[in-house]
Amino acid sequence: MIATHGISYLESRFNAGGKRPLGVHLELTYRCNYNCPHCYCKGSETVGKELSLAEITKLLSQLARNGCAWLTLTGGECLLRPDFPEIYASARKLGFIV
Q1: Which end of the chain has the smaller Cβ count within 10 Å, N or C?
Q2: CB count, 10 Å around CB of 96?
Q3: What is the pTM of this model?
Q4: 55-89 in b/e burial notation, b at 16+ Cβ within 10 A?
Q5: Helix axes 53-65, 84-93, angle to 10 degrees
């Protein structure tokens, strides 16, 4: 039953017509509290260059309307954003598989 529900959910998202993004990797921040030698986020910790909560919410709404199903919230360390719980809740409310 769960598998059938999952398939119908995905079909409803994908059958909207036209080319649609199936999944999106959204980098919420470049800030990180680690110092990994292989990471591209070093030196890119300017908070002012991040999207605001309102901008991210608007983007998520647009992605949902266009049939996007999968969403990866990433970045440097996205949990460093104090508004991460609101971003995650908004994504789940819009029906994303996060």
Answers
A1: N
A2: 22
A3: 0.78
A4: ebbeebeebbeebbbebebebbbbebbeebeebbe
A5: 20
Nearest to 28 by CA among 4, 14, 45: 45
Over residues 57-91, the pLDDT tens digits come to: 999 999 999 889 999 999 888 998 999 999 999 99
Q: Examine the pLDDT at 36 and tell me if it is beyond 90.
A: no
With contact defined as beta carbons under 8 Å apart, do 55 and 91 qualify? no
72 in Cβ contact with 97 (< 8 Å): no
What are the phi and psi torsion angles at 55 (to 5°)? -65, -40
DSSP per position, 19-66: ---SEEEEEEES--S---TT-TTTT---GGGSPPHHHHHHHHHHHHHT
